[in-house]
Specification:
It contains twelve helices and 15 strands.
Length: about 375
C-alpha cells in the first residue's frame, strides 16, 4: 500500500519538537507494517514532501496562514498524490475549513482512502475565536469524505459521525535510552525531571508551590530537587514564581536539551513529571506522549490525568488529583520509598512500553494493507 502521511506543522518551531518526533515515529511504525510511506510537513514557509526513500521534494511556499492553507490543500499536495498514485492518506488534523473540505472531496473522487488523526479530542476548549467558529461550520461535512477518525485522547465510537480507530500515543522504543534505576529508601535526596514545551497546562506551578510548602516544614525526610527542561510561554512565569518563593537552590531551568545532553539529565533523575494541569482546559483523559517516553526510559512518574494506556494504576505512577492544589511532597517521598520495594521496576516499565507503546504495535491498528 502506498500511503501519504500529510501533516502541516512547522517542524522548525521549538513547540513542535515533540510533534515532529511523534510524526517520525508513526512513519516508522507504518513502514514496519509493510506500507510504502511518504510524508509532508512545513519547514519555515516551505511545504515539503519526503518520498518513500526520504528524498526531499519542495511542493510550494507561502507568505501567510491563508496562502499556507490554500496551497497545502490545493494543487501542490493534490498533484503529488496523483503523481505518486497514493492509495491512502493519513492526515494530522489542523481544523476544518473550506479548503480542507474541498481537498477531501477531490480525494474521494480519486478513490483515495482517508484517515484523519485528531491529536486532541475534544478540542473546543483549546481553540478560540474565529478558528473555532470556522471549524464548527465545516467539520460536520467531514463524514462525507473521511473513512476513519483516529484518536488517542478519549474513548469514542464516532467523532463527527465518522467511525473511530482508537490508537494510543506511542514511541520508537529502540531509539530511547533505557537506564535501569535502583531506589534506595535510605537515599537522602530525590531528583525530579520535567521535559516538555513549557505551558500553563503542564501544571508545573503545582510542584513549585508544593516544594515551598515542603521546605517550610520543620522536619523533612529528604532533600527534593526539580529540573525543568524546555522552552515555552510559561517559562518566565515559573522562573519568577521560583524566585518569589526563594527556591532557586532547589529548582533548575535548563532550557532546551536534546540527544546525549538530555540523556544525562534523565540518568540523574529519580522521578519524572507528567501531566498535572490539563484539567485547566477541561481535559481529564489523555494519552500523553511524554508518559510513553518516560515508560520506555524506565523512569517512574507523577501524573493527574486518566490515561487508558496505564489501566489499574500501575505501581510506577504516582496519581495525584486533577485540581490546582500544590503537590504534596510527602506523598511523593512515600512513592519513592515504595519503588525500592519492587525488583527491577525500570525493566518492568521498559518491557511494558515495548509490548504496548512501540509504534510498530500501535500502527497495526490502522489497516493500510
Amino acid at each position: 500500500m502506498k500511503m501519504l502521511y500529510a501533516s502541516f506543522v512547522n517542524v522548525e518551531a521549538e513547540s513542535m519538537l515533540g510533534v515532529k518526533k511523534k510524526i517520525l515515529g508513526q512513519i516508522k511504525g507504518f513502514r514496519s507494517n509493510g506500507n510504502l510511506v511518504s510524508y509532508t510537513w512545513c519547514e519555515g514557509k516551505d511545504f515539503i514532501a519526503y518520498e518513500e526513500n526520504d528524498k526531499k521534494m519542495h511542493l510550494c511556499s507561502f507568505n501567510n496562514n491563508l496562502s499556507k492553507r490554500i496551497n497545502m490543500y490545493h494543487s501542490s499536495l493534490l498533484n503529488y498524490i496523483k503523481l505518486k498514485r497514493i492509495d491512502a492518506v493519513y492526515i494530522r488534523y489542523a481544523l476544518s475549513d473550506f479548503f480542507l473540505i474541498r481537498f477531501l472531496k477531490k480525494l474521494k473522487k480519486l478513490g483515495v482512502r482517508v484517515y484523519l488523526e485528531i491529536p486532541t479530542y475534544p478540542y473546543d476548549k483549546e481553540v478560540k475565536g474565529t478558528k473555532l467558529s470556522i471549524d464548527k461550520l465545516f467539520r460536520n461535512k467531514l463524514k462525507l469524505y473521511v473513512d476513519r477518525v483516529v484518536i488517542s485522547s478519549c474513548e469514542a465510537k464516532e467523532v463527527f459521525g465518522i467511525p473511530v480507530i482508537q490508537m494510543d500515543n506511542g514511541v520508537t522504543v529502540k531509539d530511547i535510552k533505557f537506564v535501569e534505576r535502583k531506589y534506595n529508601p535510605e537515599k537522602q535526596n530525590i531528583n525530579l525531571i520535567g521535559v516538555s514545551f513549557i505551558r500553563y497546562t503542564n501544571g508545573y506551578d503545582r510542584l513549585i508551590k508544593g516544594l515551598k510548602s515542603y521546605y517550610l516544614q520543620p522536619d523533612r525526610e529528604k532533600e527534593i530537587y526539580i529540573t525543568f527542561i524546555g522552552e515555552g510561554n510559561e517559562l518566565q512565569s515559573l522562573m519568577e514564581l521560583t524566585q518569589e518563593l526563594e527556591l532557586e537552590k532547589y529548582v533548575n531551568f535548563t532550557g532546551q536539551k536534546t540527544g546525549k545532553d538530555l540523556d544525562l539529565y534523565y540518568e540523574e533523575a529519580d522521578i519524572a513529571i507528567g501531566s498535572l494541569g490539563d484539567h485547566r482546559v477541561g481535559i481529564t483523559k489523555k494519552s500523553p506522549l511524554k508518559s510513553r517516553e518516560y515508560c520506555a526510559r524506565g523512569i517512574p512518574f507523577i501524573s493527574s490525568i486518566i490515561d487508558n494506556g496505564f489501566p489499574g494504576n500501575p505501581e510506577f505512577i504516582l496519581k495525584v488529583n486533577d485540581t490546582d492544589e500544590p503537590i504534596n511532597m510527602n506523598e511523593l517521598i512515600d512513592f519513592y520509598n515504595k519503588l525500592g520495594k519492587t525488583n527491577n521496576i525500570s525493566k518492568e516499565m521498559h518491557d511494558y512500553s515495548l509490548q504496548r507503546f512501540d509504534w510498530s504495535v500501535q500502527c497495526k491498528k490502522i489497516n493500510m494493507l
